[in-house]
C-alpha cells in the first residue's frame, strides 16, 4: 500500500526561484522511512541585509537577494522501508534531491548530499547513490530524535498534548522549563532517552518489545496484510475475551488490598490457557486489541520506571507506533498515571513519527557556511507556526495526511 502522503493543497511543488530551494532529510528506520522536505510556498525572500550587515555570508548564485528569509512549508511523508523504491521514486519525481548541498572544498566535484539518520542510512547508502546520485550524510539516530523533539517542543505552538480517558488537551511548554524530560521513541524497538538540554542527553534504557513487535506478532496472529488493517481490527476488538482479568481470578471481585480493580488485566492472553480454543476460534480483532494493550501497557510501565529512576515528571512519547491512536495513548497514559500514582504525566506529540527526520533536517544548520555552497542555510526558526488542515483531527487520522508546518528558513 502506497503510504505516500497526500500532497497538501497549494504550491507544494518545490519552486526553483532561488535555484533549488527544496531541502530534504530522511530517517530510514527498521519499519518506516520518514521524509521531511522544505519548499517555498511563495518567492518572497525578505532580504535580511537591511536587518543586519553583521553576517558576512555567501551570496545566492542565482537569487535576487543575498540574505533571504524564505517563507515556506515543511512537508512530511512516510514509506514502508520494505518499499524503499516508492520513496526513491517520490524523491526523484519531485526533484527533492536536487536541492542539496555541495561540499565547498570540492566545488568542481558535484558531490550532492542529503542528511539521513536511522539504520537505513547505512544499509541503503549505495541504493541512493546509484538511483539518485546522492550521498547520505549520516547523523546519529539518538542525536536526531532529541534534536527533532527539542525543535518541535520549542517551535510548534500545538505540539505536545495529553490524552487520557478520551480527553485530548494541548500542553503549553514553557521553553525555560522544558528540561529535563524523558523521551520515549516507540519505533520498531523502543529507546528511552533522558534529555537535559540541546545536545545534552543519555539513552537510559530501551526495550525490544515495541512497534515492530505489535506489527510482527499481530500479522502472524491475525493474518493482517497491512499495519492499517491491524490497527483497524484493534479498534473493533474486545481484549477481555482473551485477557485474564483480576475479576476472572477473584470471582468478579476487586483485589482491593493491593489496589487492583476486577477489570484490571491480571494476565495478557491469560484466558487462552484455559479456554481450550485454538487461534482460529478467537476473533482477530480481539487478538489485535489484547496485543495492542499488552505492548502499550508494558512500554508505559517501563517508561514510568525510568522516569522514576531520574525523578522525571514529564514523559514525551514519539514514534509511529502511536499514530495518534486513542486506545494506544490511553493505555500508555493510564499505565504511567497508575504506576506513578499521578506523579508522572504521559504526553504525546503531533509530529510523533518525524522526530528523527526533523533532527536530521535541522542538522544542516550545524555545518559552518565555509563547508557548504548552499542555496540557503538550515537555520530553522524558533517560531514555526503550525498550519493545520482545519478538518484535521489527530485522533481520527494520521498526522501526515495533508499536514505541514508553515515556517521560514533563514539564509546564513
Ligand atoms: N503504515 C505503517 N506501516 C508499518 N508500520 C507502521 C505503520 N504505521 C505505524 N506503524 C508502526 O510504527 C512502527 C515504526 O515506527 P517508526 O517510528 O517509523 O520506527 P522505525 O524507525 O523503526 O521505522 C512500526 O513497527 C509499526 O508498529
Ligand atoms: C535499535 C533502535 C535504536 C533502532 O531504532 P528504530 O529503527 O526501532 O526506531 C531501536 O530499535 C531500539 O532501541 N531497540 C531496542 C534495543 C533495546 O533493547 O534497548
Automatic annotation (TrEMBL):
It comes from the Eukaryota. Residues 1-20 are annotated as: Disordered. This is Pantothenate kinase. The lineage of its organism: Eukaryota, Viridiplantae, Streptophyta, Embryophyta, Tracheophyta.
Amino acid at each position: 500500500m502506497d503510504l505516500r502522503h497526500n500532497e497538501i493543497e497549494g504550491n507544494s511543488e518545490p519552486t526553483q526561484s532561488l535555484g533549488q530551494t527544496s531541502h530534504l532529510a530522511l530517517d530510514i528506520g527498521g519499519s518506516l522511512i520518514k521524509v521531511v522536505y522544505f519548499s517555498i510556498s511563495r518567492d518572497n525572500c525578505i532580504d535580511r541585509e537591511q536587518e543586519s550587515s553583521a553576517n558576512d555570508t555567501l551570496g545566492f548564485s542565482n537569487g535576487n537577494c543575498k540574505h533571504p528569509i524564505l517563507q515556506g512549508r515543511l512537508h512530511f511523508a512516510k514509506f514502508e522501508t520494505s518499499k524503499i523504491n516508492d520513496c526513491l521514486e517520490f524523491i526523484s519525481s519531485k526533484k527533492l534531491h536536487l536541492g542539496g548541498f555541495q561540499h565547498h572544498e570540492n566545488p568542481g566535484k558535484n558531490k550532492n548530499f542529503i542528511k539521513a539518520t536511522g539504520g537505513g542510512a547505512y544499509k541503503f547508502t549505495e541504493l541512493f547513490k546509484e538511483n539518485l546520485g546522492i550521498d547520505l550524510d549520516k547523523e546519529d539516530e539518538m542525536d536526531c530524535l532529541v534534536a527533532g523533539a527539542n525543535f518541535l517542543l520549542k517551535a510548534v505552538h500545538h505540539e505536545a498534548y495529553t490524552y487520557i480517558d478520551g480527553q485530548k488537551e494541548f500542553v503549553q511548554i514553557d521553553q525555560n522549563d522544558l528540561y529535563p524530560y524523558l523521551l520515549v521513541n516507540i519505533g520498531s524497538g523502543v529507546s528511552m532517552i533522558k534529555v537535559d538540554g540541546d545536545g545534552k542527553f543519555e539513552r537510559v534504557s530501551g526495550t525490544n518489545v515495541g512497534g515492530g513487535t505489535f506489527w510482527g506478532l499481530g500479522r502472524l496472529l491475525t493474518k493482517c496484510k497491512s499495519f492499517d488493517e491491524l490497527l483497524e481490527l484493534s479498534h473493533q476488538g474486545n481484549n477481555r475475551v482473551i485477557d485474564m482479568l483480576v475479576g476472572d481470578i477473584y470471582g468478579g471481585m476487586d483485589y482491593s488490598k493491593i489496589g487492583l480493580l476486577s477489570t484490571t488485566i491480571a494476565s495478557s492472553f491469560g484466558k487462552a490457557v484455559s479456554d481450550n480454543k485454538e487461534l482460529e476460534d478467537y476473533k482477530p480483532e480481539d487478538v489485535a486489541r489484547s496485543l495492542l494493550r499488552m505492548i502499550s501497557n508494558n512500554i508505559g510501565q517501563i517508561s514510568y520506571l525510568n522516569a522514576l529512576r531520574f525523578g522525571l515528571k514529564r514523559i514525551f512519547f514519539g514514534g509511529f507506533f502511536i499514530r495518534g491512536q486513542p486506545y494506544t495513548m490511553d493505555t500508555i497514559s493510564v499505565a504511567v498515571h497508575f504506576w506513578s500514582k499521578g506523579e508522572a504525566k504521559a504526553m504525546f506529540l503531533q509530529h510523533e513519527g518525524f522526530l528523527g527526520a526533523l533532527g536530521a533536517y535541522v542538522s544542516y544548520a550545524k555545518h559552518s557556511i565555509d563547508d557548504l555552497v548552499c542555496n540557503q542555510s538550515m537555520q530553522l526558526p524558533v517560531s514555526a507556526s503550525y498550519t493545520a488542515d482545519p478538518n484535521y483531527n489527530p485522533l481520527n487520522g494520521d498526522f501526515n495526511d495533508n499536514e505541514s508546518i508553515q515556517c521560514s528558513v533563514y539564509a546564513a
